[in-house]
Structure of Peptidyl-tRNA hydrolase:
Amino acid sequence: MNPLLVVGLGNPGPNYELTRHNVGQLVLDELASRTSPMPSSFSAHKKSNAMIVQTRWNTADGGERQVILAKPRSYMNLSGGPIAALAKFFNVAPTDVVVVHDELDLGPGVIRLKRGGGENGHNGLRSTSKSLGTKDYVRVRVGIGRPPGRQDPADFVLRNFSAREREELAFTVATAADAVELIASHGLEIAQNQVHAR
């Protein structure tokens, strides 16, 4: 099978690590922790502004698939540059790029999978579409819900998860990671059927 590039969107640095906007990178950390025989650590990729883990995952047909897990080191609105550079370096077609990101239009903890579509004002997706030259990549949408009251969404996504949200965060991150693994092993349609039925 073709190599798969899995990218978690977020902002760099410890100040952003546990913000809602960085849930995509939390999912990538979870995926790296699952590599065998030992958990993997991200390392800098010299040809792109990203941290990566290279691994291989089993597929449904008994084979293996090369998987590149990546976390851009750029800020969210510049995510596309590192993603396009990695896709070029590893010869990954845009259709084999999976982007994991936060989604305001889904309730907290809800996971939805799709290929293509609009960016819904998400700067990371907008940058990715522009740099790849297409919207035809897979998105793993991790719901964070809408801000309460009149709070500005831009402020909401850059705040840390609330104490109540943190209680469910590990489960949400694990579920999103499961979804990525299903996409890699069985393809998007089967993954959608299983994840959306939950």
Remarks:
- The chain has one domain: 4-196.
- The two ends are 28 Å apart (CA to CA).
- Residues 163-186 form the longest helix (24 residues).
- The beta strands are 4-8, 43-45, 50-58, 64-72, 97-103, 111-115, 138-143.
